[in-house]
Amino acid sequence: MSPAPAQLNYNLNSTWTWGFPCDNPTRHTAIFKLGRGWVYAPNISPYAGCPCINYNAPAGTITNGYIVAKGNYVRCAGLDGPERAAGAGAVTAPPPAQLTYDLNSTWTWGKREGDATYVAVFRLGTAWVYAPNISPYAGCPCINYSARAGTITNGYIAAKGNYVRCAGI
Prior knowledge:
Layout: E1 6-8, E2 16-21, E3 29-33, E4 39-40, E5 52-53, E6 62-63, E7 66-70, E8 73-77, E9 97-99, E10 107-112, E11 118-123, E12 129-130, E13 142-143, E14 152-153, E15 156-160, E16 163-167
Parallel strand pairs: 3-5, 11-13
Antiparallel strand pairs: 1-2, 1-6, 2-3, 4-8, 7-8, 9-10, 9-14, 10-11, 12-16, 15-16
């Protein structure tokens, strides 16, 4: 059985923030930003079972994600997405992102709605492709065509191991 969902107390814009388990709002816990693919992170593996989410998120966001560890390797499990149907208490897709610059090749900079932090926006199709260099960016925004600055996308990178696709578009 997976741990209870957790809610962010503060915006998550880097690697972790404080939050609380939804079944015990008086207990503080760290919530980590971590992708679905396995990564070497010996500093995070002791936190197995703690909450995680795979994108920059505003305070109040609820996540079902939790850290799974195998030795010094970790990943965020329990997230709803294309590889698992959304159910009760499902995590919603990340907020839309707006391109800051034109996207003519593989990626550009953009910003999530309501967030001043720059994020990478990838050009990626909707079919699964092998891309181990992109899989660590699960949850980041994506779009499936060349686009001009100012374009808004609801797409986000879904990952299964080293395979990725642009979901939500």
